[in-house]
Amino acid sequence: MTNHKPKSTNFLILLLSIFTLSCSSKKETKNEEGERPNIVLIIADDMAWDDSGAYGHPNIRTPNIDKLAEEGMRFDQAYLTASSCSPSRTSIITGLYPHNTNAEQLHWPLTPDKITFVEKLKASGYWTAQAGKWHMGDAIKDRFDEVYDVGTSGFQLAPDGTKAKQKGDGSGCENWVPVLQARPKDKPFFLWLAAVDPHRPYTDNIVEHPQTIEDVIVPPYMPDTENVRKDFVYYYNEILRLDDYVGKVVEELGSQGISENTMILFISDNGRPFPRDKTTLYDGGIKTPWIVKWPQKVKPKSVCNNLVSAVDIAPTFLKLAGLESLPSFEGQDFSNLLTNPEAKIRDMVYAEDHWHDYEDYTRAIRTKKLKYIRNFYPDLPNTPSADAFVSGTFTDMLKMKEKGELTEAQLACFIIPRANEELYDMVKDPYELNNLAGNADYQENLEAMRSEMKRIRKLTQDSLPAFRTPDEFDRETGKSNSFRQRPRPSKKEMEKIILETAQPNKKG
Predict the structure, then answer these.
(1) What pTM does this model have?
(2) How far apart are CA 372 and CA 467, in angstroms?
(3) How far from 323 is each of 145, 185, 298, 316, 318, CA to CA, in Å?
(4) How far is CA 340 from the centre of its chain?
(5) Residue 22, Cβ neighbours under 10 Å: how many?
(6) Sign of CA dihedral 394, 399, 401, 406
(7) pLDDT tens sequence across 188-202
(8) How many alpha carbons lie under 13 Å from residue 474 in its C-beta half-sphere?
């Protein structure tokens, strides 16, 4: 017997079909919106580019960072725009070179007139949150939906130069997983997860199975003594703790079922906090680990050997979110490299060193083969940061200097005057020990790099400041002086103080 449905029933079925198609269409639109990737930026604090297993260190136990590289892409030619904590961070978030942020010196706050990539993500529907070390001032905290700032106690010396009391376990990472768990589930998200590890000061008993002095690899520009090795063990142990938190974030993404379309970028803000590394423009100061994991787009165990700069992060994140880059951004979108690592987005990177505890003004250009450094204040020695100054490493170096026991490479922090120009063949001389600026065979290279530096300085309006900023610490004793203030005055406030007390700088 044939079943005949009345016309009214057919009409109801038709309406139901239309409604179902309409809902399906809306669902598809929502899915398309959901295809925008979640973005997680993890920033280590003072970690050298090659101090992990992922970059070939044979002894540091970093299984979670190593796994990021195994499941994603490792960048082997990645550089920062500054070798100093807060200038590096403000450069990343604004897509500007430090000298254009109004926050180019350590502890200077970013001014509210600067546009960040975060507010653009937020306005487009991303939920945005920060957890850990902030160090960019209060003016831009409203660019995030949530900010979990751990304060400055974990990375600033107390007024008397001793260790400041730290919050939590001192890592700065305690809120990383909680903020991920608290995110709205109906929006794509961006997380700025910033560790305090492995920044000084260091403490005992922070990991269950610490590294040993036998695990340490000492660069040739530092003496290989027991105190130096002990200092490195502290540093290594903080990397171990950081690695553990990286693993917890990856695990949480997996448990939430959102790993596939979540891009993780792991970097450091500058190099290790040791002499001739942090606050210098050698690779120990500006080269960074740079690992991207994004299962939906990035092939496992892939490697990119082309140049990228931290100033490229802002335009790239906006591109990945389907947004236009900002005219103010000074970097390049590197998203094409994620699927085509053989592509090239730049021929060189530009980096800066400004005041960091001690006055300095240095610029560098790095290609894949060469490094050119211009020291604009050659009358000042390459003094390490204040926290590295009081370290066991530099204490030994000071004693050995007095006894005449340091090699030429290990005396680099004390040389006065410094060379006006430095040129290094980074393939033949990765530790930058042989200055080729006076070598006749490299004069053509020197002139080309010198010309390129003039070009980019003019293009980005980078010029010598009118006044030098006084040191906050004595260069012989490391003790703080009367010029040291916390919170540190802003650039505008500092200029007023300097105008009243300092002598004009000589242009050059």
Answers:
(1) 0.91
(2) 25
(3) 19, 21, 20, 9, 5
(4) 23
(5) 10
(6) negative
(7) 999 999 999 999 999
(8) 9
End-to-end CA distance of the chain: 100
Residues of the chain with pLDDT under 70: 1-34, 153-167, 502-508
Q: Kindly tell me the burial class for residue 9, based on how many C-beta atoms sit within 10 Å of its own C-beta (0-12, 13-18, 19 or more).
A: exposed
d(CA 385, CA 95): 25
CA atoms within 13 A on the CB side of 360: 30
- List, in order, residues 6 or more apart from 263 with CB less than 8 Å away: 37, 38, 39, 40, 292, 293, 294, 297, 298, 320
Three-state SS across 432-493?
A: CCCCCCCCHHHHHHHHHHHHHHHHHHHHCCCCCCCECCCCCECCCCCCECCCCCCCCCCHHH
DSSP 298: S
- List pLDDT tens digits, range 360-381: 999 999 999 999 999 999 999 9
- Establish whether the linkage from the previous residue to 417 is cis, with ω within 30° of 0: yes
Radius of gyration of the chain (CA): 25
Q: What is the pLDDT of residue 5?
A: 39
Q: For residue 295, how far is the Cα from the chain centroid?
A: 23
Enumerate residues 6+ apart whose C-beta is below 8 A from 421: 372, 373, 374, 375, 437, 446, 450
| Amino acid, res. 120 | K
